[in-house]
Design goal:
binds zinc ion; about 35% helix; about 220 residues; eight-stranded parallel beta sheet; alpha/beta; 8 strands; binds D-xylitol-5-phosphate; TIM Barrel
Amino acid sequence: MGMQISPSVLNADLSSLADEVRRVQGAADWIHLDVMDNHFVPNLTFGLPVVASLLSQIDIPADCHLMINDPDHWAPGFAEAGAGSVTFHVEAARKPRMVAKDIRAAGARSGVAVKPGTPISQVKDLLPVIDMILVMTVEPGFGGQSFMADMLPKVREARRLADSADVDIWIQVDGGVGPDTIEQCAAAGADVFVAGSAVYRSPDPGLVVEQLRASAENAARP
Ligand code: DX5
Ligand code: ZN
């Protein structure tokens, strides 16, 4: 797999969700859907019914990022609704291993996310049951925040961990990723890039996606 771009609709026009997704369809690899519950994070977006309904209207794989408590209960439902990838926060899960397995059993790739304050060692035991590690590069909850460059060592650590285990695990970065920061992320070993405001605040979101992918590919070249 090459470098993949997953635009986040968090800062798009949420009253026209399906149309907003179609603006990046064809250019983006995934559409990133930020599910928030006002408990795990101090913001509230949309839940399973909205995601399920959206999935029936769009033609691009969904990358669901669950910033919610009790992913043990909710996560498999997003996979059953047809999401291609479902990522839960390790801090929120009661039985992370079980959540990851349930997501896979329901037919999606399983991802585990870590907040900026959570060490990568927290996901070490999950390597056999996950397909992606999401290293948050902002405090989860809001789009448009500044990239935390001090998370880059953690991205490198996640990459080393995945490589050492000899498993094909993608490393995703999310938060403040855009033209000025994507290269550092790619050089540190990330290969899936979430970009919200960088994509949707542009008049030509599809073009930004292509540019971001080219920058990432360029930076990752040895
Ligand atoms: C933040 C979300 C991100 C956010 C990214 O909690 O998980 O996906 O939408 O937005 P930008 O790219 O604007 O930081
Ligand atoms: Zn996200």
